[in-house]
Amino acid sequence: MSLYPTLALFLLLPLAAGALVRVTRPEARWLSLLLSFSGAFLLAVVFLHMLPELYAEEGAPIGFWVLGGFLLQVVLEFFSHGIEHGHIHHHSGKALPLATLLSLCLHSFAEGMPFADPKVAGDLPFLLGVLLHKMPMAIALATVLLRAGTSGASSWVMLVIFALAAPLGIATGVLIGAGEGHGFLHHMLGLAIGMLLHISTTIIFESAPDHRFNAARFVAVAVGIALALLSVHA
Predict the structure, then answer these.
(1) If you average pLDDT over residues 159-182, what whole number do you get?
(2) Which long-range contacts (CB under 8 A, 24 or more apart) does 138-141 make?
C-alpha cells in the first residue's frame, strides 16, 4: 500500500472508533473480545513474519531495539494506565490527565514511523495487525473520555490529536529516513515491534475480568491466530 492511503487509514480509524463509541456505546465484553482477537493476530504476525525477517536483515543487534521498545512501553503504560490494551478504568468526573494523552500519542508516533518504509507500508499483514490494535485502543480512549464526562468538543479535540500522532510519526520517518537510509527505519521497526509485543501479550492475558481465559476469549484468540497465519502465507 502506498504512503497516502496508509496515512489516511491511521488518521481516520481512531476518529471512526470515537464516533462508534459516541453513537453505540459498545459493551465492555465486546471490547474484550476485539482486544483478544487483535492481540492474537498481531502477536502471530510479529512472531511468524516480522521478527524473522527483521533479524535476517539486521542480525542480532536489532534485538536491543526490540527490547528497548518493550521497556519503553512499560514506562509509557505508567502514564497511560493501560489504555493501549483496553483498560478503561477511570473515575467518573475526572478529566483525562495530559500525561495520559501524551503517552498514547508517543506510542502512536513511534508505532507510525516504520511505515515510512514502503516495504513496511506494503506489508498488509503487519499493517492490518497494527490497525486492528489501534481500533480498540481508540475505542478505549473514547470510552474513558465519555466516562470522565469530557465535553463532546474536548473529546473530539483529544481524539484528533491522538489520530494525528501516527501520521506525524510516518511523516517524521520519511524526513529522517531519507537522510539516514533504511537502517534508521529498521531500528524504528524494532522499537515498534518491542512495544507491540508488550501490548499484545498483555492483551491476551489481561483482557478479561479476573484474568480468566474463557471459551469466548479462546475462540477470539484462535481466530486471530488462524487469520494471521492465512494472511502471512497468502
Answers:
(1) 87
(2) 138/13, 138/14, 138/15, 138/17, 138/18, 138/162, 138/163, 139/17, 139/20, 139/21, 139/26, 139/31, 139/34, 140/31, 140/83, 140/84, 140/86, 140/87, 140/88, 141/14, 141/18, 141/83, 141/104
